[in-house]
Fold this protein.
Amino acid sequence: MDYSPYHIYFRVSRRFRPEDVERVIRSVEPENVEAHVRSVARRSRFFSSVFLYEARKFGVISRDADISRVRLEKIIEAYLDTPLYTDSVRKLVHDYMDMPASWLHTGPQVRPDQGQACQWAAGSSDVFLSHYMERVAPLKPTRAILETVKNRLLNEEMRLVCTVCGNVRTVKVRDVKSVRCPSCGSSLVAALSPFEAENGYRDFSKLSERERRRLVKNAHIVRERGGTDALIVLAARGGIGPETASRLLEVTYASEEDLLRAILNAEVDYARNRRFWD
């Protein structure tokens, strides 16, 4: 289940009709609503921030504490059934929940004109469902998908640019035997994906200082990370530039499949967010 201020989203393993949702809601006794809410308050996405605020007020966590080093769940467990926990639940219910409104729309006393089961999703729900599926349904590629991704990356044509003499050559990833420049012998050779070659690269002598630094950074990644892995990462689609490639290659992967999975996830992230960058 997930929710927003205007939606509640249920994900169930069997067919669930609008009438079933209405029946469950109407079966809740109004006098029990607050007890139900308080019993599950800890599962709210807001509870951790509320508890942190209260913990600082109580002096349990100092105001200048590094929160990134604090295991808040452990602290919450240690303070169950204490005034700190009770007050955090009270503040959560009081500040973030509209209990009187919930009482009006639950229980058997509701008149037919006070609420009806929805027979279709409103237009605004499409936005919420799209956001929900993007956020909680990460890509889980099968071995066959990963093999397809690998073959695609190996067949990508990379533009290898020497950062010393400017020599340029185009070659498929699978055919690269050595990235060393055949003209001057330098090992500081950048590997540009088709995306970067078409959208950002110009003649080497005409590059700006910023573009030249980016190219050199790319070349250092290729030389230091070495081998096919660096070329495969840089061959990925979209926004896998030197920064993302460096981040992906810093990780030690248990298998080639794990590397391919990381590349694919990075490609998906770029495709999902590119509308905000363009």
Remarks:
- The first strand starts at residue 2 and ends at 4.
- The chain has two domains: 2-136, 143-277.
- Strands lie at 2-4, 7-9, 157-162, 168-172, 189-192.
